[in-house]
Design brief:
Layout lengths: L3 E3 L1 H7 L4 E5 L4 E9 L3 E7 L5 E7 L3 E6 L2 H7 L13 H17 L6 H19 L3 E3 L2 E3 L1 H6 L1 H18 L3 H15 L3 H26 L1 H13 L3 H27 L12 H20 L8 H13 L4 H13 L4 H8 L6
Antiparallel strand pairs: 1-6, 2-3, 2-6, 3-4, 4-5, 7-8
Helix pairs in contact: 3-4, 6-7, 6-8, 7-8, 8-11, 12-13, 13-14
Length: 347
């Protein structure tokens, strides 16, 4: 939005830190007019993001003051709320709709109200679908009924997308954990089979990075000790205690992870053993994936779809139980089998 040029008196009543004070010599300041005197203005100048300076500027030097309108500033906070990302929770939608509703209540006369209303309309439509049991995935709203009919293959796709998301966010430990979950729950899905090359690449790159970090462990440790010696003596003990505290906190964390049966432990560049353990496990995973033939795995997606379609018709009990048994044989997890069993006729 193009800022509106206002009078200096109006600026005094509508000032914000986004005001621009323009002088006749071409100088511009970002700041706020604090007071108007007979011959000058008291202005708080935004010198940097964290530094403000209060100055007196003669009126004869001021060309104009350009003030950003409040509605434009508030609209900046909501304009990117749509399109929404995938897999937002109902709570997330409610927070977004609440923010837009607040804007409309405050700026009902703004020329930006129409755009805000369109944003709210989109959010409301998606929120209603999510409240009814739907989800947004791959930028599309999947209604509750469709989601249920595609439960196993769809959840597998979501789990696979999470592996990629965490990897792209450079949360490699999280990505390894997500891969393990995908393999455990959806090992017969197309999403798992399609992700095997990606996982192989992820394991390979992570092992190389870890091996490099392991090789430089002693050098890194010595460098930290040398840097500690250059810390001012009055701060050295405090810094050493901080390092020890962080180390103990990390060790406690991985002990908890071990007790919980976590395969992929959190890593720290100053703790060698977990890195060595993870590198060894990555080597094992790579060896296993090299021998894996995805084509030899059951077709879980087809087994689920066939069972769902059979059970959604009017099957006799024998056909229904056969469909469920076939799905179970395709290594579909118990929680999905229970969904199918609930559709088996009693007689």
């Amino acid at each position: 939005m193009k800022p509106a040029i206002v009078t200096l008196v109006a600026a005094l009543t509508c000032a914000s830190f986004a005001d621009t004070i323009r002088l006749r010599n071409g100088t511009e300041y970002e700041g706020e007019v604090l007071a108007e005197k007979d011959d000058h203005y008291v202005v708080r100048i935004q010198v940097t993001k964290s530094i403000r300076d209060e100055r007196k500027i003669p009126k004869t030097e001021v060309l104009e003051i350009v003030a950003e309108k409040k509605d434009a500033a508030d609209f900046e906070a909501i304009k990117d709320l749509v399109p929404t990302p995938d897999l937002l929770s109902l709570e997330d939608y409610e927070k977004r709709t609440s923010a837009v509703e607040k804007f409309l209540a405050t700026h009902s006369k703004s020329r930006l109200a129409k755009q805000a209303s369109e944003i709210l309309k989109t959010l409301d439509k998606e929120r209603e679908a999510v409240a009814a049991g739907g989800i947004k995935f791959e930028s599309k709203i999947i209604q509750s009924g469709d989601r249920q009919s595609r439960a196993y293959p769809l959840d597998a796709q979501i789990a696979a997308a999470e592996v990629k998301r965490l990897s792209e966010a450079r949360d490699f430990t999280g990505a390894l954990r997500a891969w393990t979950k995908l393999e455990k729950d959806f090992g017969s899905s197309s999403a798992y089979k399609d992700l095997v090359p990606f996982a192989h690449k992820l394991f390979t790159s992570q092992k190389a990075a870890l091996d490099k970090s392991i090789a430089s462990f002693e050098e890194r440790l010595n460098k930290r000790n040398e840097e500690l010696e250059h810390v001012a003596e009055r701060d050295r003990d405090r810094t050493r205690r901080l390092i020890e505290s962080q180390s103990k906190a990390y060790e406690a964390k991985i002990e908890t992870e071990k007790e919980e049966g976590e395969k992929w432990l959190s890593l720290d560049p100053y703790h060698r053993a977990p890195m060595v353990d993870t590198s060894r496990k990555l080597a094992q995973e790579l060896n296993r994936l090299d021998r894996l033939n995805p084509a030899s795995l059951p077709d879980g997606d087809k087994a689920w779809t066939d069972a769902w379609n059979t059970l959604s018709g009017s099957p006799d009990r024998s056909a229904a139980t056969t469909a469920v048994s076939t799905a179970r044989g395709a290594r579909i997890p118990t929680r999905y089998i229970e969904i199918l069993e609930a559709k088996v006729p009693e007689k």
